[in-house]
Every structure is written in structure tokens, then in C-alpha cells.
Amino acid sequence: MRVLVETREQERAVGLDEVVVVRLGGCRYALPVPAVAEVGRPPALTRVPGLPGWVAGVANWRGRVLAVLDLRPLLSAEPQMLDRRGRLVVLTRGAVSAGLLVEAVEGTVLLDLERVEPAPGHLPTEVGALLAGQVTDSAGPCAVLELSAVFSLADALPRVRRGG
Known about the structure:
Elements: H1 2-13, E1 16-24, E2 27-32, E3 36-40, E4 55-61, E5 64-69, E6 87-93, E7 96-102, E8 104-112, H2 125-128, E9 131-137, E10 140-145, H3 147-152
Parallel strand pairs: 2-10, 5-7
Antiparallel strand pairs: 1-2, 1-8, 3-6, 4-5, 6-7, 9-10
């Protein structure tokens, strides 16, 4: 155990962070491990009328209502039915949780923060806003999702007004 702690401290000292690599629209995306609460099979979803297409619906996740997002339409990727490799990645920021549907989870890798480059300039503005940048490793290019932008998508949702 002590060796692991020393290794993690050494990784941070040289600018390495552990990320979860997922597939969306056939491309690789990185999510910071501290933001990933858990990964599981996609649950049954209830669609909510009037919400944008990137909101897949809501689900009962461990007794709580969880908003489930499918970012593929925002990332200019064709949403297709998830196969057996499809997963739900539950992301957290403070007390807020959201589910992210992904085509597959490749696993965790160490990301060299010094090598993260800006997102390509040819991307549509809404796609570029979701990316913190990209890095290329031995498996190829990997875009780094900007989680603050993902969580701020909720601001674009219509507000529910309750009658009084």
C-alpha cells in the first residue's frame, strides 16, 4: 500500500493524472477519475418531453433520480443503440450527479497534463466548449472532456414551473 501511495505522489509530481477513457461516437474521451463516482450497465430510462436530444432521460439510480446525458449529438456524432459494451458513467461534482451514456469504457490511463493541446480549431463552437483539449497516447488521440461545461449544460434546460 505504501508503494502505491508513493507512486501516486510521484505521478502527481510529474504532472500525471489518472483518467477514465470512454468511447463516444467512436472517438476516445477522457474523464478525470475523481469525478467518476461509478460505472455500470445503463438502466431503464424515462424520456422527459420537451428536453433537448442530448438528454437521454432520467433513471432510478440507487434510489435517486439521475439525469442521464448522451453527449453524442453535441459532439457531432450519430447516436446509435448501445451494445453490450455500453455503460453509464456516473459523474459527480460536489452534491450534483449526472449520468453519461458511453459506448464503451476502455479503462484508466495516466494522462500527461503537460501534453494536453487545445481542441482543434475546426470544431463547431458547441463541441469545442465541451473539450478542455486533446492528447495523443499510444492508443491514438483522446479528447479531454471539460466537466464544468458538461455540468453547465443543465443551465440550458428549460425550468419547470410549478403551479401555485
